[in-house]
Structures are given as structure tokens and as C-alpha cells.
Known about the structure:
2 domains
Amino acid sequence: MTVDPALRDAAQTSRAWPFEEARKLVARVERTGKKEVLFETGYGPSGLPHIGTFGEVARTTMVRRAFELLSDLPTRLLCFSDDMDGMRKIPENVPDRSFLEPHLHRPLTSVPDPYGEFESYGHHNNAMLRRFLDTFGFEYEFASATDYYKSGRFDDILIRALEKFDDIMAVMLPTLGEERQSTYSPFLPISPISGRVLYVPMKDVNAKAGTITFADEDGTDVTLDVRGGRTKLQWKPDFGMRWAALGVDFEMFGKDHQTNAPIYDRICEILGAEAPEHYVYELFLDDKGQKISKSKGNGLTIDEWLTYADPNSLSLFMYNKPREAKRLYFDVIPRAVDDYAAFLAAYQRQSNNPTDRLMNPVWHIHQGQPPLPEEGGISFSLLLNLAAVANAHEKSALWGFIRRYSPSLSPETHPRLDALTGYALRYFDDFVKPKKQYRLPTGDEARALTDLSAALGTLPEHASPEEIQLKVYDIGRRDPYKTTQKDGSVGVAQSWFNMLYQVLLGEEKGPRFGSFVALYGIANTQALIAKAINGEFVK
């Protein structure tokens, strides 16, 4: 990435959260003398990857790019899949749950693929993750726990863990209940008999020979070499082991890991390495306020978001306030789409202010190279309302209104707007249309609407949104909508606009009304008002 000296200077004090984390890494490498910085994300492929998985990679990439503005050291991002974990329960969203039942507790890469597409269930879920990360253009290296354990890349650190077995146990045992303490071992052998991951106590630990001894499922004692993928570590020791083995400098994780972070750190230190920098983010919630879970399949999937909105809007959602719990459901999509467009437009106005540019989310979303915004000023929320009143089912119908509003706009010259029309039609059909609830205007409201229609009729057909909005305000500056501002001027109460949305659009909220009329057309809006007064929408 080409470094702008002014941006680098601004990055030294930027309050954007990726730069706050990046500066910690700069201090770290100055202390350790490392010549390369390793970022890591973890993925548990017990279920299909969800948006939270994507968010972890997206946010880590944002910190990585912020670091690269501050430092010339090379960086890597390792996306690590814990695919050697035993399948402890069957996800609810697989095609045939009974197909997986005989394979419970086997490593995920030893469980057959219920979709019939890949070598194993773990390989299937890994492929789904990589497909999506590649679609977004992330720069990363994929790593499989199965490959790392079986290839011997973890052999040396596993021997070290045997040597420090008692020290690791001293960290882990106080965190466990009395019953679990009696059976706990940081090493999980893979049963030579059944192929399952065993949670059994150790009868002997021999660091010199590199072996453990335990009772297998049939009760016989087995001595097993810990190397070569014959064993793996419990997930908490595995966290710290991986950091130590790979030299990880930065890893973020969800709040559900926060209480375990000191355990991960201590085990990493016991194994001879400095624990990485952390960033703890809040968890996503579904529409019912419950934590999103891969096994439950609640909340939004990656593909569902991309059915109704562009990838950049999803990246913006991930950037904003990562330490606040947020609902991740369909109703957050429209605002994310429109906010992204607003930030992109603002970035161009910030060309002489590096500090503001680094605070703008699009710098982080586009790794310092945001595209130019498309002209046109048509928001996603405006398109949703246009789809409603135009009864449109095809993009061509919406484009008819758009071209009348601005002949210079076309699908060829404005591909993002063209994509938005498709997203808007799908989103309207699936989420807005079923919830629309019109109401009849009261007598006073009907008279106000009649006056509004007459006022609009005094304007030319191609009046600007601002000219139309003035007429909307003029009618609203009367009882019962008239308000008096602090400076003594006459304003318009929000109830005026609420009435317009409820009666004309069947919504509680809506776009700037002048912009809507300009796009829909004055004559069409007058016809819309007449239908509302006649009660046709309620019928």
C-alpha cells in the first residue's frame, strides 16, 4: 500500500478503533524486534460459517491495514480452522441429521459430508468459508488444524506441552468443577479403536518418549505418541499453544471468550512465547435478542445479506461500534446500505482533511482506496418506497421512474444504482410489503392532503426535491402541525410527516418526502393522494 505521509501522521493520533489497536502492535514490535506481524482469526467448522465469522476476518483486516499505514513491516493474516475438534452435537441446519449421528465425537474432518460434495463435513464447511472470503477479496492464508497436527507442524510444541504438563494443569484445574477436575487432561487422544476424540484422564505422561497413556473406550490401556495427529489439545490449551507455535501477534475474539483470555495468555507464556494483543468484540444478536449460533442457524447468513444488499454495506455494519451488542437481522440492512453511500460521498469532501478521512469507515472498508461515489442521490430507502407505490416487480419499472427523474442515469453508467434496484425489489417483496399497514386520513388530514396536492400542482413536473420539500413544509406549517422554534420561527411537527408516511406509504417512517415526490413524479403523487383520501389502500 502506497503510504501518504499526511495520512501516516494523522494515523498516529486517529481515534478510529483500528488505529487504536494498530498502535498497540507498533509498540509490540518495537519491544520484541519482530520483523513480521502475524494476525490470526479462528473458525470452528462445526456449522456453516455465518456473518460473525466474516466479521472477525473483516475487522482483523481493518486493523492489519491500519498497522500497515503506521509501519513498513510485512504482515500476514492466517485464518485458522479448528477442524480437528470432535463433533460434539449435530447442527440443526444440516440436510439429514440422522446421517451424522453415527459420527458423533469424531474429528470434523473425519465426519462424512452430509451434502455429498467434499471429503468430509469439516472440509465442506472450510470450503464454504474460503468461498466467501475469496468473494470479498480478503488477503489471507487458510490453515487447517488437521493439516497442522498431522503434518507435524505442532509436534515440537506438543512435546513442550508434555514437558509443561503439570504447569498447564495448574492453570486449568482451578477453572473446573470438582468432578471435571478428576477426569481432565489438556491432551485429547484420538481413539485407535473408534476414531473418536476422547475426553479421558491420563494414566501416564512421558515427555521424553513423547507419549501419553490412557484407558481407551474398551477399557484397555493405550500408550499413544502425541505427535502426527494422534492427539490434539483441549480448546483452551489449544488457543495458547497455537499462539506460541505460530508466533501470533494479534487475534480478536467475541465477548464469550473474554473470561478465558487470561488462560490462553498464561498457557502461551508457559510454552515459551509472549501472548498476542487481543481485541474483544460484542456478540451479534438475532431478531429475538438471542446470541447468534452456528449450530442453531439463527440470525442472518452471509448469503442472505447479499441477497438484499451489497457487500460494502455488510462491511460497514462490521466496522461500526464492534464493542456494542447489535441486532444482526434483516431490518438493519436498509440503513447500512444508505449509511455506506453517505460515508462514501463524505470521503470525497474530506480530501483536505486526513484526520477525517481516517475516521471515515470507507477508508477501512476499502483498505485505504475507496471508489468514487456514483452521482444520482437516490437512496435505498427511497427505492423501497418507489417499489411500493409503483407496484414494481422488475428493475425496468423502477428505471422508468429514475430516467424520468434524471435522464443522465442508466444501468450502464450507474451499476451500483442498478444493483440497488434489484436489492430493493427483493427486500420490499420479502420484508416491507407483508408489513405494510395503511390507515384512512381523518377529516382534517384529508383536507391537508388535498391542499398538498394542489400545492404540488403549482410546480413544474421536473421541480427539484428542494422546491417540492418547500411546498410540503408550507402545508405543514399550520395547525395541528405548526410548531414554534426557539428562535421564534414557525416549524413543522414530525406528526405531519408521520401522517404522510402512514396514509400514503403504509409505513411509520419514510424518506425525505420532497425527494420521493421528485422521483415518483408530481402527477403520480397527486394520484396517490387521491387514492389515499378515497380509502383505496385500506380496501
